[in-house]
Amino acid sequence: MEDDETWERLRDLRCDAVQGWLVAAAMPPDETTAWLLARGSRGWQRPAAALPAAAVEE
C-alpha cells in the first residue's frame, strides 16, 4: 500500500493488515521483528495527523 486512496479503500473493506511504503520503508527481517513487537497487539495505527480531514471527522 503506497497511497491514501488505497489506505481508505482497504479501511472501508475492513482489511486488518497492510504492508507498503505508506506504513514503513523496507527493512531487514530483524528490524521488522523489532518494529512489529514495538507496536504490540494493536499493530501499526496511522497517526490521526496523517489522515485526510474527512477520515478524522468520522
TrEMBL record:
Residues 1-40 form the EAL domain. SUPFAM superfamilies: EAL domain-like. InterPro entries: EAL_dom, EAL_sf. This is EAL domain-containing protein. It comes from Streptomyces haneummycinicus.
